[in-house]
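TA notes. Do not distribute before section.
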Amino acid sequence: MSDPDAVRHVAASLPGATERDRLALALVGLAGHPRAEVAQRLGVGEAELSAALSRARKELRRTVAPLPGSGWCERAERLISDRLDAPLSDADESRLDTHLRNCSRCVEHERRLVQATDALIARLPTAPAAPYLAPAPERVDLSPAAEPVAAAHDSVAGWYALIAVCLVLAVAALALVLAGAV
C-alpha cells in the first residue's frame, strides 16, 4: 500500500488520534515500513514512536470495544503494541506474559486490537481476503537509501499465530486457576 493511501485511510478511520499517532500507525501498520525508518522520518526517537503506535492502536481498539484499565494495563498495552512489530526483550516478554496470565482485561485488549486491525485492513479499498496471510505488498522506495520491507510483512503472520497461541494458553491458565479456586 502506498504511504499516502495508508495515511488517508488511517486518518479517516481514527479522526480523534493525533497526526503523529496516525502517521506512525499508517507507515508501520499499513505501509509496512520498519520502526527505525519511521522514527527517523517523523523526527522522533524509537521510544516516542513506540508510544505513538501504542496510542494509535489503543484508539483503533476502542473502535471495537472500550475497556477500563489500570496503570499496569497501560504498560501492557504498550508492550502488546511493540510485540506486533518486533520481538520483545526477554524481560519485557516475561513481564507481559505474567500480566496476561493475571489480567483478562488485557487479554481482551489484545484480542480486540487484532479484530480492530483486521477490520481496518478489511476497509481498505483493495483489502486482501486474509490480510495477515496475503503475500507482501509491492516494495515502496521512499528514498534512494530505503530498504525493502517485504521481510517484515512475511513475519507478521508468524507473530499473529504466536499471539493466538499465547491467548489460548492465557485462557487455559485462567481456567486452571479458576478450577483450582473452586
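Switch to the second chain here.
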Amino acid sequence: MSVVLSSRLIEEPRLRSRGYVFRDRSQAGEMLAAKLEKYRGLDGIVLAIPSGGVPVGYAVARALGLPLDLAIARKILVPGSTEAGYGAVSWDGETALNHELVTTLGLTHAAIERGIAETRKVLEARMKRFRGDKPLPKLEGRVVIIVDDGLASGYTALACARSIRKRNPAKLVVAVPTASEEAVALMLPEVDELVCLNIRSGFIFAVADAYQHWYDLTDEEVLQYPGKAGEQESPRTSTQPCLPDGRKSIV
C-alpha cells in the first residue's frame, strides 16, 4: 500500500516502518501525549479501549490532565479461531465489518449474525465487569480522544469511533502508538484527527512488534486505571523511543 497522506493524520515520520520503538505501553502513551498537547485545558476526555489501550490511555490522560474512562468493544471472531476477527462490536451494539474478509471467508448472513450475537454476549459480561452500573460520561460537545495500544485491522477502534460520533462530540480523535497502513486508511475518513507515531506496512502486522516489553493485561490490572488519570501529576520520564537493546534512539 502507498504511504497515507492526510491533513488529519499526525505521525512521527522518523518512526515509520520501524519495529520495537517503544519500551512499553506507558512510554508510548507519554510520547502520544506530546502530540496531543493542544488539548490540554480543554473540555476533553480520554476513552481507552481495554485491555491493552488502558495503560496507554492512562499515560495520555495523566500527561494532559484529562479524565480517563473506557470505550469497550470486542472483535467478532472468525469461526473456529480464538484470535482472528472479521469485524468488531462496540458497547452500544455498533458493528463494523471487514466486508472484504467476510467475502474471502465465504461467511453467510446467518453465520455473521451468530458471530455478532456471540460477541454481544461477551460484551455484556465485559461491560458488567469493567463498568458495573456506571454510565458512559457525557460526550456531547467535548473533545473525545480514543486510545488503544495499536491498530492492526482497525475495526475495534472503528466501532468505538462510530458509537462516539453518534453522541456529537466537538472533536473526535483516535490516538495510537502504532498502526498498519491499512488501518490508518480505514480510520482516517471516520475521525477528525488520527495520531499515530509508528505506521508500518507489510503483509504481516503485529501491534506487539512496536514494543520491547509486551504482555496481555488481566481484568484486574485494567480496573486499576479508570477515573484516576486526571488526578495525577504529569510524567517526568523520558519520551524518547528505545532501541531493542535499551539504548535511546535519536528521533
